[in-house]
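Section 3.1: Structural characterization of target chains.
Under the original work plan, the team committed to producing a structural model for every single-chain target entering the pipeline before any wet-lab resources were allocated. The record below documents one such target. The sequence was received from the expression subgroup and is listed exactly as submitted; it comprises 271 residues.
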Amino acid sequence: MVRILWIMLKYIEKWEVEWLKQQSIGALFKARLGSLMCIALMVYVLTTLLVTFAIMIGNHFNLHIVRLNYDYIFAPPLLILFPLIVPLFINWFNRSFRYSTIIVNFFEVVELVKLNVTGLRFMLESVWFMSYIMGSIILTLYAAGAFIDEVTLVKYVEQNKMSILSIIGLVHIVIYLTIRVLILPEEGIMQQLVKYRMEFWIWVAAFIFTLGYIVIRLLSPFNSIDFIYLTFVLLIALVRIMDIYKKLRQIAEKIKDSLLNNEQQFGAPLI
């Protein structure tokens, strides 16, 4: 699916670039049709993801209020459209602004960071990750038993099982992911790609889980302090995502330059 969208966007980019080279106003408006087509594709993709995310949240937490209402189905695409179309209107007469190139670059990064969830390496690391977290939780409880009376500890854990286990598990998840990323080398291009790809998905997961938590909390009394805190968490995650995205763009350019040099050296495109 991503590959098909990327091919379509490349054709749209070629269309927009060709028309932007011409100096007439009519050519400029034709070029902006390419920008509008890119925006339409992005709205379609993001709307699909948003609807899927809402349905998954509703099914997972058994929220009966989450359902598709076709009377208002026009609203989510418009909600996504408004922020996407603002840069185009601001730069409408700026011929150096190519919306399609921005979107194509974004999809190139998506191709770089996509995960092979069916691969053996991914499955083995997932099993190791879950085993590590479960073992660390059990070991933490035993370590607490070295300082707290056993009867008191068992009673406290039984009364607050979900909260205490969740907190301990979260702490060990953060420790594991921090160590896992820090030990990755970043000397070569591919090593940098592996490291930044992992960082990218960690922050995307943090952003999605925080956003999902906010949606769930909106269904119950919401503390203003919690709202401010979660807003800053979202902002931090978003800033980190954008920072890593820029690094991935640099890696993508280096990879393209390397492929281009190889193509010129051997006289034929590499497959």
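The CA atoms of residues 200 and 242 lie 9 Å apart.
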